[in-house]
Write a structure and sequence with these properties.
heterodimer; A: mainly alpha; Ferritin; about 55% helix; about 0% strand
């Protein structure tokens, strides 16, 4: 089970909204190598991890990725706060806005919705760890 | 930076240290040196969290004992930041 702490892992205080930037950063939220994929990857792979201490490690890493997800969500949220209709149109944010307004929806920067096909769970320790490196070792 | 922000910052620094130490200890469960570090900073963090929760708002459900108003619900939403 999990419990929640009412604070961000690192504070996010954005003064100026920037819808253009938000459209890129959202990939770290719901993109293939984003924080949602990272947490789901670790938290799903742990069941077939044969070493107890590594399964425990996967749990703790997966939990920390959820804290990262919350920070990225806060960044996207604050970057799209108080936007004018003109800014929404000019920045190209209109294509996201028409479906989600300023809600934070897990998708990649290219508009591809988050889905479990972004990561892999094979039940084989080497395969799964290599998959983790491909996803998490290259970006964040 | 006011006292509240300073305390939150300190808790954040301590917590980050503790998370990283825990990840290390997960695979090095007999490193007594690392455990000493963990115990030391964990005590400081626990104390600071209690103090913060008493003065401002509860950071954890377990620190949310309330009388007049449900304090957990009254705490600010972390993702709103301070510039909103």
């Amino acid at each position: 089970m999990w419990s929640y702490e009412k604070r961000l892992q690192f504070p996010v205080n954005i003064k100026e909204p920037n819808a253009k930037l938000a459209q890129v950063i959202i990939s770290q939220f719901g993109g293939p190598d984003g924080e949602l994929a990272a947490s789901m990857r670790y938290l799903s792979q742990r069941y077939s991890m044969p070493y107890k201490e590594v399964a425990g490690l996967l749990t703790d890493i997966g939990t920390e990725e959820l804290a990262h997800l919350e920070m990225i969500g806060a960044i996207v949220h604050q970057l799209t706060r108080n936007l004018s209709m003109e800014e929404i149109e000019k920045s190209g944010f209109d294509k996201y806005y028409v479906d989600h307004t300023v809600g934070v929806w897990p998708q990649a920067a290219g508009g591809i919705p988050f889905n479990a096909c972004e990561f892999q769970v094979k039940g084989d320790i080497i395969t799964d760890l290599v998959e983790d490196m491909a996803a998490d070792g290259t970006t964040a | 930076m006011n006292n509240k922000e300073q305390m939150l910052r300190d808790i954040g620094i301590l917590d980050f240290t503790l998370i990283e130490l825990a990840l290390y200890l997960d695979t090095h469960p007999y490193d007594t040196n690392a455990m000493e570090y963990y115990n030391h900073y964990n005590r400081i963090k626990t104390q600071l969290e209690r103090e913060f929760s008493r003065i401002y708002y509860p950071l954890k459900l377990s620190l949310a004992e309330s009388n007049q108003e449900w304090r957990w619900g009254a705490a600010p939403l972390p993702w709103e930041g301070v510039c909103g």
